[in-house]
Amino acid sequence: MADLNFCTAVDLIIKASMEGKPRHEVILYVGKTPELLISYGLPDLPLVITGRTIDKIFFDHGITKGVIERLHGLVSSPMTIYRAAPPHQSGSVVVTLETHRGCPVIIPIRASKQLGRSYFANEITSMYAKEGESFDKRWLSAGLLLWAKNNP
Fold first, then answer.
1. What Pfam families does the database record attribute to this sequence (predicted)?
2. Angle at 86 between CA 84 and CA 87, to 5 degrees
3. What does the pLDDT look like over 111-128, one tens digit per residue?
């Protein structure tokens, strides 16, 4: 179940943008970085998202508020985890079981992002439906696959 405070904050950020008063500077705590992601290279830091990213996900990528509110659950139970491709070396890309318009939902996470003078977190930088055929085959052939749900 999604965190009620997180859901309320997502709703307020979207409403503020609809009223012409975007809250891009806000940093929301999504939750603890899941153990599965930590075991595949992300540091044990809080998982966060900015108001700017929420706006981008909702308004530009068309992901519904309900899906955004389930963000921590989606990141916690991925279908696959990939290493970030160059030039984005520090982080992971999570492919979820969730689909949007028939395409898998991708959630890039930047590791150890400095937010402020001394606060570091793993930042969710986007969430979008990955269109196009065989992106997973390209990523697999590039050696980016770290973990897959169906692998023993």
1. MuF_C
2. 110
3. 999 998 999 999 999 999
DSSP 54: H
Q: Which residue has the tokens 């509110």?
A: 69
Range of the domain at 135: 4-148
* Phi–psi pair at 52, nearest 5 degrees: -60, -40
Judge if pTM exceeds 0.85: yes
Q: Cα separation of 146 and 115, whole Å? A: 27
DSSP string, 57-93: IIIIS---HHHHHTHHHHHHS-SEEEEPPTT--SEEE
For the chain, how long is the longest CA-to-CA vector?
A: 49
- The encoded tokens of residue 26 equal 């806000």
Alpha-carbon span 152 to 149, nearest angstrom: 8
The span from the CA of 84 to the CA of 126, in Å, is: 13
Instruction: Count the neighbouring beta carbons within 10 Å of the beta carbon of residue 40.
Output: 16
When divided into structural domains, the chain yields a total of 1
